[in-house]
Amino acid sequence: MNGNQPINNTTTNDDDYYVVPVIEGPCIHNDTGFCYDMAHECHENPESIAELHQGIQDGELTVEDANNIYRGKTV
Q1: Integer distance in angstroms from the first to the last C-alpha of the chain?
Q2: How far, in Å, CA of 36 to CA of 28, rounded?
Q3: CA distance 49 to 32
Q4: Is the pLDDT of residue 15 over 70?
Q5: Phi and psi dihedrals of 60, rounded to 5?
Q6: Cα gap 45→2, rounded to integer Å
Q7: Beta carbons within 8 Å of 75's beta carbon, 6+ residues apart
């Protein structure tokens, strides 16, 4: 065995690969005001955050649902 060569125990075909597109552009916001990008400024909007807290207090949202909305996920 040559110590300089990587060991490859799998069989590959040069035609087998996946292409993952990277879409750059503005954050996509849903109607809740939050997007999936946790670094985006929408996650610092006090009015939108207050609406989530109010929804929890009013019993309209669970804490888990509010967290999902805040993270830009579908509820």
Answers
A1: 54
A2: 8
A3: 10
A4: no
A5: -85, -25
A6: 58
A7: 65, 68, 69
Segment 25-54 shows an average pLDDT of 85
For residues 16 and 22, the answer to whether their CB atoms sit within 8 Å is no
Q: How far is CA 44 from the centre of its chain?
A: 17
pLDDT by residue (tens digit) across 61-75?
999 999 999 998 877
Q: Which two tokens stand for residue 46?
A: 């006090």
From CA 55, how far away is CA 75, in angstroms rounded? 14
Beta strands in the chain (DSSP E): none
User: Are the beta carbons of 61 and 52 closer than 8 angstroms?
Assistant: yes
Residue 69: exposure state from Cβ atoms within 10 A (0-12, 13-18, ≥19): buried
Q: How is residue 15 annotated by DSSP?
A: T
